[in-house]
Amino acid sequence: MSHPYSSLPPERFWKTAVGNLSPFDISGLWTPKFRIGPRMPIVTAGSCFAQHFSRALVARRYAWKDFEPGPSILTEAQRKDYHYGTFSFRTGNIYTPRMLLQWLQWAFGIEPAPGEVWEKDGRFYDPMRPGVEPGGFESKEELHASRADTLAAIRDAVTRTQVFVFTLGLTESWYSLETGHEYAICPGTIAGQFDPAKHAFRNHDFSATSRDMRRAIKIMSAQNRQIRVLLTVSPVPLTATATQQHVLLATSHSKSLLRAAAGDICAKYDHVDYFPSYEIITAPAYRGMFFAPNMRNVTQAGVDFVMQNFFDDQARVFGTKPAAPKANDAPAQAMDDEGDAEDDLRCEEEILNSFAR
User: Fold this and answer.
1) Can you tell me the distance from the alpha carbon of 238 to that of 2, in angstroms, rounded to the nearest whole number?
2) Nearest residue to 162 via CA among 40, 35, 32
C-alpha cells in the first residue's frame, strides 16, 4: 500500500542519508533558494563566525564588499586591530537580532542613536562597539564622528548589496534600563562601569528573537527591493552565561532558539534563506571532529568543510562554480587541520574568558 514515506528519496531517511555514510560523504544538506554568484555584491555581519564567510568569499574572488575600509595609511595589522575589514562595516560583532535592528534603525533615521559614552582612563568608548578602537577615542566628538561613518557605511551596504549574510550568535544581552538600548557587551568588561541600577541582563526568547529579525529584514527590504538575506547560526558555544544555568545548557538553549527562529523566518519569506553551518559543525554525525581541544573554537578544517558545502550546494542547484582559492588569497587564518581558525578572528565576547576563576 502506498503512503507518503514509500516514495521519499534517500536523503529523507537517516539511515541512507547519514547513518550509512562517512561524515565527509554527507551532502546536499542545503537546497538554496537563490543563486549567489561571484559577481553579486555580498555583505557580511553578525557574530565571530561570520568572518569566515567573508574570507572564503574573498579567497574565491567573490564580490564581498567592504563599505568602511578605513584610512589607507593603516598597515594590515592595524586594520585588524581597529576592526576594519572584519565585517562589511565597522560595527564589531553584532551578536543578536536586536543589535542588528538597532544599527539599522539608527542608520536610516528611524530611531535616534544613543548619546551614551563610556569612559576609561581618560579615553572614550562607544558602548555599541567598544572593541573597535583599541585604547578608546581621544574625545566624545571623535567617537560620534566615527560612529557616523559606520552608519553611513551601513546605509551603503544595505542599499548597494544583493546578498546580506547575517550570522546569529547569542540570545543573551545587556541593556540600558534608561533607554532600552542593547549593548555590545556587558558594561565594565571592556570599558564603562557596571551599575545594577542602570544596566540589566536580558535573554531574548523566541518571539523577541524572531520579531527583531523580521523587523530588521523589513527595514533592509524597504531600502533595497532586490536584497536577499542569508541567515546562519554560529556553531561556537557561549564563552560565558549570565543565566543561572550551566554554560553547556545555556549554549544549547541559545543556539536552539536561534536556529528555530531562523527556520521560522525562512519559511515566511521567499527572499530569506538559511545555510546550515551550525548543523555541519555540531550535528552528532560529525562527532565533534571540527572543534579544537577546548571544544569551543572551530578548527580550520571545520571552516573549510562548511564553506565547501556552501559552494558545492550552490553549484549543485545553480551551476555556480567558484574559482579555486589561491594560497596567497587566503587570509591569515589558514593553517594546518589542527589549527584553531578562531585565533585570528575579532570577537568581543572572548574577553569574558579573562573573568573565569
Assistant:
1) 46
2) 40
Identity of the amino acid at 84: Y
Diameter over CA atoms, the chain: 78
Give the mean pLDDT of 220-232. 98
* Total number of residues shown for the chain: 357
Q: If you average pLDDT over residues 125-134, what whole number do you get?
A: 95
C-alpha cell at 288: 565533534
Under 8 Å between Cβ of 214 and 271: no
238-297 pLDDT tens trace:
999 999 999 999 999 999 999 999 999 999 999 999 999 999 999 999 999 999 999 999
What residue ranges do the domains of the chain occupy?
Answer: 30-355
Q: Which residue has the cell 531600502?
A: 223
Q: In three state form, how does the secondary structure of the chain look? A: CCCCCCCCCHHHCHHHHHHCCCHHHCCCCCCCCCCCCCCCCEEEEECCCHHHHHHHHHHCCCCECCCCCCCCCCCHHHHHHCCCCCCCCCCCCCCCHHHHHHHHHHHCCCCCCCCCCEEECCEEECCCCCCCCCCCECCHHHHHHHHHHHHHHHHHHHHHCCEEEEEECCCEEEEECCCCCECCCCCCCCCCCCCCCCEEEEECCHHHHHHHHHHHHHHHHHHCCCCEEEEEECCCCCCCCCCCCCHHHHHHHHHHHHHHHHHHHHHHCCCEEECCHHHHHHCHHHCCCCECCCCCCEEHHHHHHHHHHHHHHHHHHHCCCCCCCCCCCCCCCCCCCCCECCCCCCCHHHHHHHHCC
- 290 burial via Cβ count (<10 Å: 0-12, 13-18, 19+): buried
| Closest among 332, 77, 80, 114 to 66, alpha carbons compared | 80
Q: Is the pTM of this model over 0.85?
A: yes
CB 106 within 8 A of CB 113: yes
